[in-house]
């Protein structure tokens, strides 16, 4: 793994406040040529008590943010809409908007370049589970054309991983600790199902071992996914293991 990413992960883990985590993230991104960062998160309607509330962190120039609001771009910002539904990262900037035939988005990007020198960038949707997050992490550079293409080739993988890590740490720091612990607490049956899943058993085999219906196993695993904020059984298992919830 990239040494700079490992160093950033260590600094994020050591951060004890949202402000400290954001500062470390901004510094880490600046080291790979990101000029501005914007992180937005809105919780789903089914969020449990104690879950993080709406978050918005940005280093965008005040001149641009004021123009963005005054021009009503929030209603026509295609990057914002796509982050609410997409899973994979995607490029942003005038040239990409024009390639998609989105003139409103292209106009917004052109004005961002003229007013604040903002070039192309990368939008990283944040969706730990289907419908879970409405928002993303946007990383903006001063680059265009071939220069931005070269930046993507050199830094996109690290940038995406760092964005997910920073967003996760910020959300952890925004949670109410007691409520978060309660949310992650697995029932004995949920834990048993995940343990057998870790052993490589399918739902029907887990059901045989536990003496319950296959549908009941599926229900326990679905509840475990919900508590752990995971989109798949594999993600739930990985998160449970990383949190030490399946330790003997």
Descriptive account of the structure:
The structure is a single chain. The chain has helices spanning 3-14, 18-30, 62-70, 78-83, 94-99, 103-116, 145-174, 177-184, 188-198, 203-210, 214-228, 233-242; strands at 36-41, 55-58, 90-92, 121-125, 136-140. The chain has 248 residues and is of the alpha+beta class. It folds into two domains: 3-174, Beta-Lactamase; 185-242, Orthogonal Bundle (Arc Repressor Mutant, subunit A). Strands 2-1-5-4-3 form a five-stranded antiparallel beta sheet. Helix 9 crosses helix 12 and helix 10 (203-210) packs across helix 11 (214-228). GO terms for molecular function: DNA binding. Pfam families: Autoind_bind (PF03472), GerE (PF00196). Residues 179-244 form the HTH luxR-type domain.
């Amino acid at each position: 793994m990239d040494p700079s990413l490992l160093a950033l992960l260590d600094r994020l883990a050591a951060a004890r406040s949202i402000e400290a985590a954001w500062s470390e993230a901004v510094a880490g991104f600046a080291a790979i040529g990101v000029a501005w960062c914007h992180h937005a998160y809105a919780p789903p309607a089914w969020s449990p008590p104690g879950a993080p509330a709406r978050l918005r962190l940005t280093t965008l120039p005040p001149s641009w943010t004021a123009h963005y609001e005054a021009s009503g771009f929030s209603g026509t910002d295609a990057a914002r809409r796509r982050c609410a539904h997409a899973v994979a990262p995607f490029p942003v900037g005038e040239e990409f908007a024009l390639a998609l035939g989105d003139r409103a988005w292209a106009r917004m990007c052109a004005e961002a370049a003229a007013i604040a020198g903002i070039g192309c960038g990368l939008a990283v949707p944040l969706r730990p589970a289907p419908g879970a997050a409405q928002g993303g992490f946007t990383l903006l550079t001063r680059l265009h054309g071939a220069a931005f293409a070269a930046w993507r080739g050199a830094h996109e993988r690290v940038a995406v991983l760092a964005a997910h890590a920073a967003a996760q740490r910020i959300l952890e720091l925004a949670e109410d600790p007691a409520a978060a612990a309660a949310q992650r607490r697995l029932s004995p049956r949920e834990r048993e199902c995940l343990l057998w899943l870790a052993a490589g058993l399918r739902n029907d085999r887990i059901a045989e071992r536990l003496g319950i219906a296959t549908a009941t196993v599926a229900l326990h695993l679905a509840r475990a996914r919900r508590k752990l904020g995971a989109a798949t059984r594999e993600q739930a298992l990985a998160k449970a293991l990383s949190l030490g919830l399946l330790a003997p």
